[in-house]
Amino acid sequence: MRGPQNEVRAVTSLGVDIGTRMTKVIGLSTKGDQLEIQAAINFKLPADLILNGVVQEPKTFGRLLEDQLVPTGCRFQEAVFSIPTNLAVLRWINLPSLPADELRQAARYKVKRHLPFPVEEAYVEATPPAIEDSEETGTSLVIAVRRDIVASRAQAILYAGLTPIRAELEAQAILRVIERRLNSLSVLWRDASLTIIDIGGSNTHMYVVQNQRLQFMRGVKFGANLFGRAVADALDVPFEEANELLSLPGTALDADGIATISTADGPIRVNLSDALDKLTREFMRLLRYFRSLHPERSYAGILDQVIVCGGLVGLDGLCDYLSKCLGLKVESAQPIAGVIARFNRESFQSISNRQEALAVVMGLALSGISQQVTEEAVEHAGHEFSWTSAA
């Protein structure tokens, strides 16, 4: 019989994905190996509350977040929040194997000439370098973000009555979700090359992961808003209404790039081929560029499959369309697969239908769970920003 000292403690974590117009929140709980979503929130932000990644009025944001959390009846003490990938400077730099603090200082010295802002005004972190047996240094991913971006978001979380324990790049939150998925597969699949495409509203990023390590990352300055604007222009409706139409259940994309939108007044067909062509051209350009960096037929240049995430990805038929254009197997991220929900079936079904938009916030919540379960906050500093009020 198990004694109280051997009981598995339940751990809770709150992920807060702060966008320019919207904020997504997921409250996660785990006991043993079972993950449970306790709360899932999506709310709009006032215009200009977030400018260039900085929360202009942290107290206003904090009160909005607190007001959204109260009706859930869930109590959370700590939160992990997002940093947009496009607001970070990322460089692969050769560094020696050093203790975390010394590695961070070496990274600051090496990366400062690459920054568009003074290194004194930035948080800088570095992943442990990948060092071969015969080498003294190895490649480390160095990440720099302006302090005002991180600090304003942390302050906003504090105003919500929460303790901000970590800031994490959107890219790393997505990779955390993908890692959870890969861990359920065989070793052969876990080590395969994988391309991740994150279609945001105004930015789209492509990542290549090999041997469970990020090898390549590039972004373009357009995304799902292209499709919202195409629908708005075709139907002569406001942009916000167009986005809502695209997210309606039953909306589907055919092989010619025509979206059929199911409405109460009957189906509406909108041609999205121009926006799709622009997006797929950029994907092909990035794929060709990545392959050009490696010798022909080398393992590093092989791309096996694509996983896509972002709010638009739930559009039925999009993965098939991209697969046809890219000539690769394309799947959606499905970040909440295998997770149970505490709230009612209807609410869970509504987020399941568009779960690809939750990849970042789910990754943030998993990050908090990971930190509490492993109790390795300092050791994790090489993978994501650890924020403290003393910083």
The number of helical runs is 11
Q: What do the pLDDT scores average to?
A: 84
**Unreliable residue stretches:** 376-385, 387-391
Helicity range:
25-40%
How many distinct beta strands?
19
**What order do the SSEs take from the amino end to the carboxyl end, as H and E?**
EEEEEHEEHEEHEHHEEEHHEEEHEHEEHH
Category from helices, strands and their pairing: alpha/beta
Rounded to the nearest angstrom, the radius of gyration is 21 Å
- Principal-axes geometry comes out as globular
State which percent range the strand residues make up: 25-35%
Biggest β-sheet description: 6 strands, mixed
> What quaternary form is this?
single chain
Describe how the helices and strands are arranged.
Blueprint: E1 11-18, E2 22-31, E3 34-44, E4 50-51, E5 54-55, H1 58-69, E6 78-83, E7 88-96, H2 100-111, E8 122-126, E9 137-146, H3 147-159, E10 163-169, H4 170-182, H5 187-190, E11 194-199, E12 204-210, E13 213-220, H6 225-235, H7 239-246, E14 252-253, E15 258-263, E16 266-271, H8 273-292, E17 305-309, H9 318-326, E18 329-332, E19 340-341, H10 345-353, H11 359-374
Helix pairs in contact: 1-3, 4-11, 6-7
